Automatic annotation (TrEMBL):
Positions of the UniProt region annotated as Disordered: 1-23
Annotated source species: Streptomyces luteolus
Top EC class, one word: transferase
Sorted UniProt keywords: Kinase, Transferase
GO MF, one example: glycerate kinase activity
NCBIfam families: glycerate kinase
Name assigned to this protein: Glycerate kinase
Pfam entry (one): Gly_kinase
Entry similarity comment: Belongs to the glycerate kinase type-1 family.
Start-end of Basic and acidic residues biased regions: 1-21
Enzyme Commission identifier(s): 2.7.1.31
PANTHER family named in the record: GLYCERATE KINASE
Cross-referenced InterPro entries: Glyc_kinase_flavodox-like_fold, Glycerate_kinase, Glycerate_kinase_RE-like, Glycerate_kinase_sf
């Protein structure tokens, strides 16, 4: 009888030991589960969204936001970095601001001669100037075109504002213009003089350049001699001829066949008069890649301001810090409104894909419409494309409801491209 209590105490000890072992086992399992979860989180793909705008539907910033929302429906903890991009055309300043530049606004002369508010971007002594902000098609009233008289004067004023703000490197994004004046208006705003036979300034626009008798560039702002001016464009057309600015881009600015002939002859005459003023380089620059960009404003920048031409997307990727962002990514999502043959010739998605492929990082693309074959995509470095039309065949709905549909596309990418 006296030993019963000891057996009871021993039994309690054994129970306590068993419970302790159980707790340790459970704790070990919890710890193991935590380690596994942490490991899974460590293995989660890091996604970089570097897409251009869906023109007429979504800005590049909105594209990134919508894709991110879709990805997070699949994995709420997915690590996403957004770096909206542009190729030098409209949307370039917005991409720079999204990348950390300060937005600056200034009143300038619009393409029709009336005042408009235009923006440029500034960070330190580097400015991003978008000619479409001052001389773009989007500044014209709906249905109104001025192919012969639209001026780039405001683009010159915008460049001067960047100089006044202390810029010493200027990325001059050219595209989306309403103009075909060879950059004459821009140069006039910066101090050049273009006179007719009576010694009077020629009227604004490309058409009146046929009356040009003399050109004097000696009064151009001397600060350009000390500035690195980068002509950023996605086109490499010459100034005139079958592949020149009037022939290729004039019709989309409202130019009739007769207008195209007038403009081509006027710009050719412009180059001849400039050659008398500045020498053989005027003729050489007329044939240079990028001279025909944005209605020939590229020519004005090359011959008058000492600009150097670079593919717009390459410049913007450098300015926005794409390289370091790419180093942090396992998957890149790029895209634009339409993936087509033009995409392969200097557009943002092609530039992003080429840079990512060089570093061995997988790239997929989002778009409104897909007009490239699978082979063309792969050759460009894009493993797969996800068009909105795969979710909604009605193109009109894709344009009107691009945001929600793009979120569904992002969700699909998440299911197919994210681990687990």
């Amino acid at each position: 009888m006296g030993r019963e209590p000891h057996r009871e105490i021993g039994s309690q000890r054994r129970d306590c030991l068993d419970a302790s072992k159980a707790r340790k086992a459970r704790g070990s399992k919890v710890a193991d589960a935590a380690v596994t979860a942490e490991s899974e989180r460590a293995q989660a793909r890091r996604v970089l969204i570097a897409a251009d705008k869906f023109k007429g539907s979504l800005t590049a910033v909105q594209v990134a936001q919508r894709v991110t929302a879709g990805l997070r429906r699949v994995d709420p903890e997915v690590r996403v970095e957004a770096l909206p991009v542009a190729d030098g055309g409209d949307g370039t300043v917005a991409a720079a601001v999204a990348g950390g530049f300060e937005r600056r606004e200034v009143t300038v002369t619009g393409p029709l001669g009336t005042e408009v508010i235009a923006a440029y971007a500034l960070r330190g002594d580097t400015a991003v100037v978008e000619m479409a902000e001052a001389s773009g098609l989007q500044l014209l009233p709906e249905g109104v075109f001025a192919p012969l008289t639209a001026t780039t004067y405001g683009s010159g004023e915008l460049l001067r504002a960047a100089l006044d703000a202390g810029a010493r490197t200027i990325v001059f994004g050219v595209g989306g213009s309403a103009t075909t004046d060879g950059g004459a208006g821009m140069l006039a705003a910066l101090g050049a003089r273009f006179l007719d036979e009576d010694g009077e300034p020629v009227a604004p626009g490309g058409g009146p350049l046929r009356d040009l008798a003399s050109a004097d560039l000696s009064g151009l702002d001397p600060r350009f001699a000390e500035v690195d001016l980068i002509l950023a464009s996605d086109v490499d057309n010459p100034l005139t001829g079958p592949k020149g600015a009037p022939a290729v881009y004039g019709p989309q600015k409202g130019a009739s066949p007769e207008d195209v002939e007038t403009l081509d002859a006027a710009l050719a005459h412009f180059a001849v008069v400039l050659e008398k003023s500045v020498g053989p380089r005027a003729a050489e620059h007329a044939k240079a890649p990028g001279a025909g960009a944005a209605g020939g404003i590229g020519y004005g920048a090359l011959v008058g301001l000492g600009a150097r031409f670079r593919a717009g997307i390459d410049v913007m990727l450098d300015v926005l810090g794409f390289g370091p962002a790419l180093d942090r990514a396992d998957l890149v999502i790029t895209g634009e409104g339409s993936l087509d043959e033009q995409t392969l010739h200097g557009k943002a998605p092609a530039g992003v894909a080429a840079a990512a492929r060089a570093e061995g990082v997988q790239v997929v693309a989002v778009c409104g419409r897909l007009q490239l074959s699978e082979e063309a995509l792969v050759n460009a470095g894009i493993s797969k494309a996800y068009p909105l039309t795969a979710e909604e065949p009605d193109v009109a709905k894709c344009i009107a409801e691009a945001g929600p549909i793009l979120e569904r596309v992002g969700e699909r990418i998440g299911r197919e491209q994210l681990p687990g």
